Amino acid sequence: MSAVGTGLLLAGLAIMAAAQVYVTLKTFAVSALKGVLCFVIPGYALLIAKRQGFYGKFLLSYILGILGIVIGGGLLS
After folding, report:
1. Is 28 exposed, middle or buried (0-12, 13-18, 19+ CB in 10 A)?
2. 9-51 tens-digit pLDDT
3. Residues 1, 74 contacting (CB under 8 angstroms)
4. What is the reported pTM?
5. How far, in Å, CA of 14 to CA of 50, rounded?
6. pLDDT tens, 47-73?
7. Pairwise CA distance, residues 45 & 48, whole Å
8. How far is CA 71 from CA 55, 58, 62, 77, in A?
9. How many Å apart are CA 77 and CA 21, to the nearest integer?
């Protein structure tokens, strides 16, 4: 169970990081300053994703990442 829990925990973290990088790269196409803010401030990425129209994919990937972290942490405890 330890290997499964660790795998889920790391997969959840990787999914969340990939979602953050995805929003940051899409935002750099709009504005470099907003792209830097998205990379530094995670909450700002949610705001920009909602304004630019790709909020659904971003939120879904964040929720999947959070679930992976929670389930992996639960299996490890």
Report:
1. middle
2. 999 999 999 988 888 888 888 889 988 888 888 788 888 888 8
3. no
4. 0.81
5. 22
6. 888 888 878 888 899 899 999 999 999
7. 5
8. 24, 20, 14, 10
9. 30
Percent of the chain with pLDDT over 70: 100
- What local confidence, expressed as pLDDT, does residue 12 receive? 94
Place of tokens 């959840």: 12
Q: Look up residue 64 and give its two tokens.
A: 């999947």
- Can you give the length of the chain in residues? 77
Alpha carbon distances (Å) from 15 to 30, 32, 33, 49, 55: 23, 23, 24, 16, 15
- CA dist 43 and 24 (Å) reads 12
Tokens standing for residue 11: 């997969």
Residues 6+ apart with CB under 8 A from 70: 12
